[in-house]
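Sorry to interrupt, but I need a hand with the structure work. I would like you to pick a protein and set down its sequence and fold. Please put the record directly below this note.
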Amino acid sequence: MQNMEINAGVAGLPDDALLVDVRNESEYAGGHIPGSQNLPLSQILQKAEQTFPDKHRPIYVYCQSGARSARSAKLLELLGYENVTDLGGISGYTGPRA
């Protein structure tokens, strides 16, 4: 797992990367980074492998403050994902929101 500052991480996302917001559905609906998918931390163990079948594809995770994204990144690695980056919290994000 890598850690990266959220603005630099979003600006430098590889073309094939998945951007995943691990906050709950209501937080995601309240504003998220454009192009991100929502998979709450509470659902990672149950849904990650069906939602993201390619374990080699880069996955960048973020949450509100960085705590849930760190836990999510560790869980994804335990599930066998090989290229996971923790971007931390959207609270530090200065770009557009959807």
Summary: The mean pLDDT is 97. Residues 44 and 50 are 10 Å apart (CA to CA). Strands lie at 2-3, 18-21, 37-38, 59-63, 84-89.
